[in-house]
Amino acid sequence: MNDATSPTDRRLSKSALSRRAYDALKVLILDHEIAPGARLGIDELAALLGISQTPVREALARLEGDGLAERHANGRYHAAPLLDLATFDDLYAVRLLLEPPAAAAAAASVGAADLAALHRFVEDQRLAGTQGRPEIFAGYVAADAAFHETIAHASGNRLLADAVHHLHVHHRLGPLYRNRGVPDASDAIREHTSILAAIAAGEAAPAERLMRRHIERSRAALRPWVAAESSHMPQHLTARQGVPA
Fold first, then answer.
1. What domains lie within the chain, and their CATH numbers?
2. Which helix (H) or strand (E) holds 117?
3. Could you tell me the pTM of the whole model?
4. CA geometry: angle at 70 spanning 174 and 168, to 5°?
5. Average pLDDT, integer, range 175-191
6. SS (H, E, C) 69-105
7. Given phi > 0 = left and psi -120 to 50 = alpha, else beta, which region is 219?
């Protein structure tokens, strides 16, 4: 019998290690086990996870894409800084400029594939855990992000979709749920269901209105948490100030 690992098996193994590193580091960042602004040393993380450096590098690149890590000019990675109140307000101001019109445009142009994906993401949110440990609620955050980004994609406006994606809204908000869970999950799922129904029916004005109300309610619910979190964090670790290189 030939026990040699095939190239396909090696690729699958590499992919699995990268996914394992990504999942583990995501939980550590969401839980503040890795503090906001902390350096993400590849050697140290590889030793912590018991894997080689390559899947750690790949995981850090994915986390950068999520807005949970930042890569500096010197090539070093840091955990994303804490979302301070001023940045939170700016983030939601931009959301209100982009996402309600995106929902309206999606209602006019959404295709079958995006509709199927939106239904799947709402169902994923229903099935996801919402308790206060990141390994439980991380799936909820991912489904929430995917729902909003898919609507932006369905708008047919590539630049708008890119802008919504690069805000990384839901991943940046994820650390707020640690030790709290997602207490507004039932509200968000109900609102997502209504937005999806309006988009599926081709009703642009209701889709825009419902998305605006959804974002405004989310802002009102989360803003006190951001204020409390940022008041206890050193100034140099907030998003407005950045992190040391």
1. 7-80 (1.10.10.10), 85-231 (1.20.120.530)
2. helix 112-127
3. 0.80
4. 40
5. 92
6. EEECCCCCEEECCECCHHHHHHHHHHHHHHHHHHHHH
7. alpha
Rounded alpha-carbon distances, angstroms, from residue 85 to 67, 90, 141:
17, 9, 20
CB 219 within 8 A of CB 191: no
Kindly provide the b/e burial profile for residues 23-49, where b requires at least 16 CB atoms within 10 angstroms of the residue's own CB: ebbbbbbbbbebbbbbebebeebbeeb
Asked if 153 and 109 count as a contact pair (C-beta separation under 8 A), the reply is no
Distance set, CA 10 to CA 3, 18, 52, 126 (Å): 13, 12, 14, 35
Which residue type occupies 213? R
What tokens were used for 135? 């390994």
Tokens representing 168?
Answer: 């990384």
DSSP secondary-structure letter at 128?
A: S
Percentage of the chain modeled with pLDDT above 90: 66
What is the arithmetic mean of pLDDT over 113-130?
A: 97
Locate 38 and state its tokens: 């902390």
Length of the chain equals: 245
Are the beta carbons of 131 and 179 closer than 8 angstroms? no
Average pLDDT over residues 200-221: 98
Report the C-alpha gap between 181 and 129 in whole angstroms. Answer: 9
Task: Examine the pLDDT at 134 and tell me if it is beyond 80.
Answer: yes
Structure tokens at 12: 């699958």
Q: What average pLDDT does the structure give for the chain? A: 88
- What single-letter DSSP state applies at residue 6? P
